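# nightly structure sweep
# worker-07 picked up a monomer target from the shared queue
# config: single-sequence mode, recycle default, output format = structure tokens
# input follows
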Amino acid sequence: MSFTTGGLFHRESVNLTALYLDLGDWDSVRNKVIEKNLLQARTQNTLKRVCSEVLSRLKLLGLGELEFLNQGSHQEQAHLLWLAVCRRYRFIADFAVEVLRERFLSLKTDITHEDFDTFFNRKSEWHLELEQISPATRRKLRQVLFRMLREAELLTAGNMIHAAMPTPGLLELIYQGARKDVLCFPIVEFDTKELT
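# output follows
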């Protein structure tokens, strides 16, 4: 539940990916980012926190995915970064599959705060540690999750679900990894067969 640090970190992720592809080592990337304040953070603590968060997500992408992220379109990058977030945070992946995708498939075109709250309450029945989260933190988690969905172009400003339209190249890349990762997107399964 540590994803309150920020949103999708699109620009930062693309910049750190390019640096990794150049240096070939995550520790070297981290050191250079902190040494030169490449994320242009105001404080050292913020710099370290954001760098750590971005790297924790990028490390979950394979080399082919990182190369694709480095060269892809803005939307392809956003979708790959959403995938990295889902791999990093089980809670978000479950939300993507159980709420975002299910609502999309059942032709419910929006996601409300109540949908998040219902999902959170359902998860807290199985994960008692969620009951320890304060209402303020819970609101922050919801706010950041909705912001990530918007930044990934999966949710409009009015919280309407925007169908994912992954390119054939991106779908092929996802299928090379874990085929189930496609479930993190609001997409109909037959659409993926047509695209590949």
